[in-house]
Amino acid sequence: QVQLVESGGGLVQSGGSLSLTCAAVGFAQENFAIAWFHQSPGKERAGVSCITSSDARALWGDALEGRFAITRDSAKAAVEFKVDRVRPSDSGTYYCALATRRMCAPDEKLFHYWGQGVQVTVSS
User: What are the CA-CA distances from residue 91 to residues 8, 32, 100, 111, 118 (Å)?
Assistant: First the structure.
């Protein structure tokens, strides 16, 4: 059974950096994409960043500002997601999601597996 194990998050000071990791346990397919979605309180969940098993990357929404980065562990289906110069609007729950094809799109229907989410709070 495939499980997405997320780590990181917690309380981060405004202006600091945030790092989240996601590992797909029990997953051994060669083709995949792993994305991060962000949900702020009272708002809908939205895609932020994605990377495929061929290292194609995508950034969406606020991630286009240049503060976000996503990298992949070439030995396994695991990614690290970093945010620099965090601000209060980056607070919320971040979800890791796995698609079983090499395609990145901010469409939740593309992703078959989801993590439970990690909470991030940026203090002002």
Answer: 13, 27, 28, 23, 11
